[in-house]
Design goal:
The protein is an alpha/beta fold. The chain has 17 helices and 12 strands.
Length: 459
């Protein structure tokens, strides 16, 4: 990346941050011996504090200070920290963000640091470690956890509709008539007069409960919790190769036909409109199910604890179940396979100490601690088994709809490319307009050309 392009990217971030009013604070400017570690998930913080306590016992003289911020503030403060030299030593990284951080050269290659120089790809779920290697072959993150997509449903909504949860285990869909999946969500949709979506007289303009919840248009993350399970099971891939693809496939019929069907569900009254959810993720699928606006929804495994802790107006826990994603035209299910990692910033004044912490985070002891917390699926297979057992024993929840996708090889990788921020900036408004209905799905062909042109810009 040229100096001019890097400066422009950081300057653009500064304008955004100034408007939001975020300042610095914390970060690598602290005293040597105190390793600053940032994460965004409050549900994971207790587990990582246990990891920090164990690490400190084994490394006298080193201290881990953990800071947790909400998703939006997290990335804003991190970007500001890269500019103002207040970034942390180590932070939880995301595939949607890390490619641009590599472009900006703000991540330290872990191969160059003693403690992390011998990280082994084979210690983690297959395919995870490779995602965190740049085009230069260097490793920029050690895997911490992974996620897939499944369907959360309200047991009470299914019971009221006379639907046996077992029916959700082998649903199928297609872009022509929606298959058994669309028949199900039509039946689960109810208008304010009590008429279901598969009954005569259903009023699609006055719906009380939608069969399928919505998580927005999907423009900010390749439809991970929206349409990716459908495009994936149609046999479609976002790029020519992954990671580090250089050509997009948004002009292909498998993609556009799927999106036309998917967003068409809102026009039929089976899924909330863009306005009804307040835009992208304003009212998430968990809240939609909790309030009775939706009967089921696709979401990620990182949301297990959120969904299972939902309560009604009287504080009673809701009856929440899990089912696999529907089988598509390819004859298989599909789920995007995403993963998080821990990265070290180039601003860290104690990179070797930071590398010790990163190595510990990805090691057996910490991974087992996280697995036993049951919040996410850790990167190491044995720790994943602990998370599965926790959910079965403590929550009476079968989470295999998430884990079977990995075992059965029905996953596809989150697309990792350069120009990640520019891609999101172009995709988000276009997909929003398709969801709203102000742009046809065919407009994705023009977007595809714009995205491909990004690779033609001189580095």
């Amino acid at each position: 990346m040229s100096v001019l392009k890097k400066a422009s990217a950081l300057a653009a971030s500064l304008v955004l941050l100034a408007g939001c009013g975020y300042g610095g604070g914390g970060g690598s400017g602290g005293s040597v011996g105190t390793i600053e570690y940032w994460l965004w998930d409050s549900g994971q913080q207790p587990g990582y504090q246990k990891c920090a306590d164990a690490f400190q016992q084994q490394n006298p003289g080193l201290k881990i200070h953990i800071s947790q911020y909400g998703w939006d503030v997290y990335w804003s403060k991190l970007t500001a920290g890269f500019i103002a030299d207040t970034a942390p030593d180590v932070f939880t990284d995301h595939l949607a963000k890390y490619a641009q951080f590599v472009d900006l050269k703000v991540l330290r290659p872990l191969d160059d640091l003693g403690p992390t120089s011998d990280v082994q790809d084979g210690d983690y779920q297959q395919g995870l470690a490779q995602l965190w290697k740049g085009q230069d072959g260097k490793r920029y993150g050690t895997p911490k956890d992974w996620d897939t997509i499944a369907m959360f449903y309200s047991g009470d909504a299914l019971k009221a509709a006379g639907v046996d949860p077992a029916q959700l285990q082998d649903l199928s869909w297609n872009p022509q008539d929606g298959g058994t999946f669309e028949k199900l969500i039509a039946h689960l949709s109810i208008d304010n007069k009590g008429v279901r979506g598969d009954q005569p007289g259903f009023d699609k303009t006055d719906v009380k409960t939608y069969g399928l919840g919505s998580d927005g248009s999907g423009g900010g993350g390749w439809g991970q919790t929206q349409w990716s399970a459908f495009t994936g099971s149609a046999g479609w891939q976002p790029t020519d190769k992954n990671p580090w693809g250089s050509h997009f496939n948004l002009d292909q019929p498998a993609f556009q036909d799927t999106l036309k069907w998917y967003f068409g569900l809102a026009q039929k009254g089976y899924m909330p409109s863009f306005a009804e959810i307040g835009g992208n993720n304003a009212v998430g699928p968990d809240k939609q199910i909790q309030s009775g606006i939706a009967a089921l929804a696709l979401s990620g495994s990182w949301m297990i604890s959120t969904f299972t802790n939902l309560t009604d107006a009287n504080g009673k826990k809701l009856n929440i179940g899990l089912a696999p994603t529907p089988i598509g035209p390819s004859g298989k299910r599909a789920s995007m396979f995403n993963g998080l990692a821990d990265s070290i910033t180039t601003l860290s004044k104690q990179p070797e100490n930071a590398a010790k912490w990163v190595k510990f985070l990805s090691g057996e002891q910490c991974q087992d601690i996280i697995g036993e917390s049951g919040v996410v699926f850790p990167a190491r297979p044995a720790a994943t088994d602990l998370a599965i057992a926790y959910n079965k024993d403590k929550r009476n929840l079968d989470v295999t709809p998430f884990t079977d996708q990995v075992k059965q090889g029905t996953t596809f990788l989150f697309p990792v490319t350069t120009n990640a921020a520019d891609i999101t900036a172009l995709m988000q408004p276009r997909l929003d307009s398709v969801y709203i209905g102000s742009s046809p799905v065919s407009s994705m062909t023009g977007l595809n050309t714009q995205l491909n042109d990004l690779f033609k810009v001189a580095q």
